[in-house]
Structures are given as structure tokens and as C-alpha cells.
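Whiteboard transcription, Tuesday session. T.W. wrote the C-alpha cells on the left side:
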């Protein structure tokens, strides 16, 4: 009986082993065999006939160079917000033929040495297709020098002073660097024209003690000399860029009692200057800011009382639907109490213009930046600025730009939270001259000298 049981168990065990062997054999055959027939187009590809890998769409890389610290820290954040708003809109809508826009930003610190190191590092490691930003002449030489070296399209968002190019010339003209507005020389010239048209008899000048202030004063002086010296120019004041307390300057203006004041960018405390004048009772009848104070965002920073009745050389027309649409988008993105600050509309429009050129050049433009910059010189785009950006001249200038003079008056407009609104006074057109022609005009000119009085003709 015992042996019968053993025999029965042995038979079952052998049958089990045979079954396992058969199963393993079937599995082995199914995982290692290769079909001998060529699969049809609808068949699943095998390692012997891989499917083509789709070509990835190229990504457009934009590098922001914004001052978040240093003398121009009050400007950089707004520039950055404007670029981000445009990038987000374009990415959401989609850019045919491209994966989208990759945007990153560095803090220039308003320090040329730091800015240069950061920019070189990003260009060499990240390889952007365009840079946009930079605020003051103290640092603008960096992209002006590096852009041609790296063949990198560069949009300078203020201020690229024409006096930077004058002999001995800190920077040279280049097709790679674009300044989207008209020259600071024409800012001063248009200011003189405005004062003469309004019958001003005594005009004061206050500006930052650096190239932008100097070129603005050259333009004002040029108008004065070329049009019969229609008013007295005094006092002339230049202020350090890091200054915020203008008690001395305000007292000088108050004692001089001019009926007009032209104020070019003064640095860190520039936005607070109107309020300091107002508090001292020293605001003249005509107070004209140069383009940086180009919309109510700057006015809100100063406070309503400081900005009331200020005129500014603006880069937008506050009466057109495109501007109202821009303000609406800005508030939707950054809050109901937000308002576009100085130059934000330019940075916003510049991104759209650049992408228009990228689409026209195609993906090859991201490989060949010469093709891209040449396309930018043949492409125009406009939405929220008075002037279209592009096409450019051979030196990267947007020749023949249009501007406007606006005034901040009491009464709510596009911004219900702010008791002022922008009133269009007039539109202005600069001469259609390229950068080299403007430099030829400025050659040999000198700035207005601090402390000197320039009398009106008898």
C-alpha cells in the first residue's frame, strides 16, 4: 500500500513538472520571437522598424534685464510685469510653429560690473534669442557692447541717451540694439517747443546728473538757440541719481519762481519730486516731465496731489480703445488698484513686435540671429503705443516716432481708485532722422551748465 501511494505521488509530481516546463516554453517563445513579416502601416512598430520621432517645436527664449535693486529699483518691477503679461497672453493664444516663450529675468542691480557678469553667464549658458530691459545709462553700455559680440537682438527700454554715442563715444551704433522711442535730444527739443507755444518767459531745468539729463538739456538748449531765445533758461540743476530729498532744489525753484519747469529723469527719488514741490508751494504753471513719467502709474506713486496738472511727454494716447484695453488687462492681472506704470506699455508692445518678427523669420530665425534682426528691421507692429515699433533704420532706431503731451487733471478716468485722469493736449511727431543723423546734429553741442543763466532775447 505504501509503495502505491509513493508511485501515485511521483506520477503527479512528474506531470506537474511537465506542465510547468510547457508553460515556460510557451512564455519564452512569445517574448523573444521576432515577426518575419513586415508590419503594415497600421501595425504596432517593432524595434526592427521604429516610427519616426516627431520633431519638437522650438522654444523662443527671452531674457529680461531689469533693475530690481540699485538706483533704478523703482522701475524694474513694472517693466517685468509688462513683459510677463505679454508672454502669458502669447503663450495662452499659442504661437504657430513654436512651442511658446520661455522668459527669465535677471536683476541688473544698476551696477555695470554685476550686470555684465550676469548677462555673459546667461547668454553663454542659456542662449536666449532676445534680451529686453536695462534702465539707466550707467548700465546701458553693457548690452550695447555685448549684443553685437553675441549677435543677440536687444531691445533697450530706456534710457539710451544719444550723448552715449558722441565722441569719444562710450558705445557705438549697432543694428543689434533697438531703442523703441525717440531720442532724448528730441525730448528736450519738444519741451522747448511746448513752452514757447504756451508763452513761457522763464524755464527751469532739473535733471539727473548723467547722460540722459545732459542730452535732454542739449535738446532744450537747441530749441532755445534755433528759435530766437524766446524765454530765459534758469535755474539749471543736475541731481545725483541716488538722491531722494530735494529740499535744496525745491527751495531754489521756489525762489527763482519760473513759470515753466522741464524735469528729466533724476534717479531714485524722481517720482517723489512733484509732491515735494507741491508741499513747498513751488509748482510752476507748466511742469513738464520727460517720457519716463509717461502714464498714471507714475502719478499714483507720487500721490494725486503731487501729480495734479503735471504735463508729460507721453508714449501713448489715452483716448484710444487700445489704451483702455491695456489698462483693463493690467488690472485684471495685477489687481483692481493697479495701473500701468512708466514705460510698461512699451515693454508690452515690444514683446508682441518681437514675436511678430519671429513668426515671419520662422524657426530658422532662432538659429540664425542675423536673419532674425534683419526681419525685425523690416517688421512693424502696434497696439498700445502711439508709434508702431519697427521697421527700424540701419542703426536700430525707430525713426520718426510719434509722441504726445498729456496732462493729469482732477476727475476719475480709467482708474476709479485714482482721482485724476489723463487729458490729451497734443500729438507730436519727431523728424524722420536716423540715429546717425541725430548725432550729426548734436556734434559739438554742449549741455546746459548748472548755475548759468541763459537770458531771453530782448
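and on the right, the sequence the group agreed on:
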Amino acid at each position: 500500500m505504501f509503495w502505491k501511494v509513493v508511485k501515485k505521488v511521483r506520477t503527479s509530481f512528474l506531470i506537474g513538472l511537465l506542465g510547468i516546463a510547457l508553460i515556460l516554453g510557451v512564455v519564452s517563445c512569445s517574448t523573444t520571437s521576432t515577426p518575419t513579416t513586415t508590419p503594415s502601416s497600421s501595425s504596432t512598430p517593432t524595434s526592427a522598424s521604429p516610427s519616426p520621432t516627431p520633431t519638437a517645436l522650438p522654444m523662443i527664449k527671452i531674457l529680461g534685464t531689469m533693475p530690481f535693486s540699485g538706483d533704478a529699483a523703482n522701475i524694474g518691477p513694472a517693466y517685468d510685469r509688462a513683459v510677463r503679461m505679454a508672454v502669458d497672453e502669447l503663450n495662452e493664444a499659442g504661437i504657430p510653429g513654436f512651442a511658446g516663450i520661455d522668459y527669465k529675468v535677471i536683476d541688473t542691480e544698476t551696477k555695470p560690473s554685476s550686470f555684465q557678469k550676469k548677462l555673459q553667464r546667461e547668454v553663454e549658458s542659456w542662449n536666449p534669442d532676445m534680451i529686453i530691459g536695462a534702465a539707466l545709462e550707467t548700465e546701458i553700455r553693457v548690452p550695447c557692447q555685448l549684443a553685437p559680440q553675441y549677435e543677440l537682438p536687444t531691445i533697450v527700454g530706456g534710457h539710451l541717451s544719444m550723448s552715449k554715442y558722441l565722441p569719444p563715444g562710450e558705445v557705438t551704433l549697432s543694428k543689434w540694439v533697438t531703442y523703441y522711442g525717440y531720442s532724448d535730444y528730441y525730448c528736450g527739443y519738444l519741451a522747448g517747443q511746448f513752452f514757447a507755444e504756451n508763452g513761457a518767459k522763464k524755464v527751469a531745468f532739473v535733471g539727473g546728473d548723467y547722460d540722459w539729463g545732459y542730452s535732454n538739456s542739449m535738446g532744450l538748449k537747441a530749441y532755445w538757440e534755433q528759435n530766437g531765445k524766446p524765454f530765459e533758461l534758469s535755474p539749471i540743476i543736475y541731481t545725483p541719481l541716488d538722491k531722494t530729498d530735494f529740499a535744496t532744489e525745491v527751495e531754489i525753484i521756489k525762489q527763482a519762481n519760473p513759470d515753466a519747469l522741464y524735469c528729466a529723469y533724476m534717479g531714485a527719488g524722481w517720482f517723489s519730486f512733484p509732491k515735494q514741490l507741491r508741499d513747498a508751494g513751488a509748482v510752476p504753471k507748466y511742469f513738464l516731465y520727460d517720457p519716463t513719467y509717461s502714464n498714471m502709474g507714475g502719478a499714483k506713486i507720487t500721490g494725486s496731489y503731487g501729480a495734479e496738472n503735471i504735463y508729460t511727454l507721453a508714449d501713448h494716447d489715452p483716448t484710444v480703445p487700445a489704451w483702455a484695453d491695456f489698462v483693463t488687462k493690467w488690472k485684471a492681472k495685477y489687481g483692481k488698484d493697479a495701473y500701468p506704470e512708466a514705460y510698461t506699455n512699451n515693454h508690452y508692445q515690444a514683446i508682441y513686435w518681437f514675436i511678430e518678427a519671429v513668426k515671419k523669420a520662422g524657426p530658422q530665425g532662432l538659429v540664425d540671429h542675423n536673419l532674425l534682426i534683419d526681419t525685425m528691421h523690416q517688421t512693424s507692429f502696434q497696439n498700445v503705443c502711439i508709434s508702431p515699433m519697427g521697421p527700424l533704420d540701419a542703426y536700430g532706431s525707430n525713426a520718426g516716432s510719434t509722441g504726445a503731451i498729456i496732462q493729469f487733471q482732477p476727475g476719475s478716468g480709467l482708474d476709479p481708485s485714482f482721482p485724476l485722469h489723463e487729458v490729451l493736449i497734443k500729438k507730436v511727431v519727431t523728424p524722420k532722422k536716423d540715429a546717425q543723423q541725430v548725432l550729426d546734429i548734436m556734434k559739438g553741442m554742449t549741455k546746459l551748465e548748472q548755475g548759468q543763466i541763459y537770458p531771453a532775447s530782448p
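Someone added at the bottom: The longest strand covers residues 420-429.
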